[in-house]
Structure formats: structure tokens, C-alpha cells
Design a protein that fits this description.
The chain has about 120 residues and is α+β, with helices and mostly antiparallel strands. It has a domain at about 45-110. The chain is about 25% helix and about 30% strand. The chain contains 2 helices and 6 strands; from the N terminus they run αββαββββ. The chain has helices at about 5-15, 50-65, and strands spanning about 35, 45, 65-75, 80-85, 90-100, 105-110. Strands 1-2-6-5-4-3 form a 6-stranded antiparallel β-sheet, with helices on both faces. β5 (about 90-100) and β6 form a beta hairpin. The chain starts with a helix and ends in an 11-residue tail after the last strand.
Length: about 120
């Protein structure tokens, strides 16, 4: 299987910024039934992109977390939906749901810690 440049870039970005494997109880949102952690530590949804996206959007609304949904959109064979947190109290900055190669992957991008030497905005 050949991976496109965009898919490789998304994969590396997610790998570098995603949370380390976390326990199921620590997940910030409820994921669709059947979601599992594969051997490499990535969250793999048992559902497709739309069902996974809908489940996450529904749970965010239920919890009262304000997040902008970007997508779904397709670029070079990769489908992607992003949720960007507008709620400053969340530990995550974004959730990426990506469908590539028949798998729906979920990545949590952690919010950068506020540097005490830098003034808050």
C-alpha cells in the first residue's frame, strides 16, 4: 500500500502531537461502541467516518463542550473530520477522525501547557 504525501504528513502530525496511549477511563469523550486500541497504540473505530464523527459530535454537545467541526472533507484519498475546541478548560485542543486504508482512526491533540514566562492572551 502506497501512502500519499498528505496522508503521511497527517499521520506524522498526529503521531507527534497525539496523546500517548491513555486508559479508556481517561478519554475526554465517549467513543463509538467497538472502538479499540490497536497494537501500535492508536484508537481504531469499529464504525465508519460519519458514524464516528456523529458519535463524537453528539457527546461533545451532551457535555456542553463548544467545538468547531471542520469537515468531513477528502484530500488525496484520505477523509478527515476535525473538532477544534473553543472551550479553554478542555485538556485537548483538537480531535482528528481520519479514514484511510479502510480504517477509521481517532487522534486527540493535547492543548499546549501555558508557559509561565509567556503572557496569557
Amino acid at each position: 500500500m502506497r501512502v500519499s504525501g498528505l496522508a503521511a504528513a497527517l499521520w506524522m502530525t498526529a503521531a507527534l502531537t497525539a496523546w500517548s496511549p491513555i486508559a479508556r477511563a481517561e478519554l475526554p469523550v465517549r467513543l463509538p461502541p467497538g472502538t479499540r486500541t490497536d497494537a501500535s497504540g492508536q484508537l481504531v473505530s469499529a464504525r465508519g467516518l460519519r458514524d464516528t464523527t456523529d458519535a463524537i459530535a453528539k457527546d461533545l454537545a451532551r457535555r456542553g463542550i463548544i467545538a468547531r467541526q471542520l469537515g468531513p472533507y477528502r484530500v488525496r484519498g484520505v477523509e478527515l473530520t476535525r473538532f477544534l475546541s473553543d472551550t479553554p478548560s478542555t485538556l485537548w485542543l483538537a480531535i482528528h477522525v481520519m479514514r484511510s486504508g479502510g480504517k477509521t482512526l481517532i487522534f486527540f491533540v493535547s492543548r499546549p501547557a501555558l508557559d509561565e514566562t509567556r503572557p496569557a492572551r
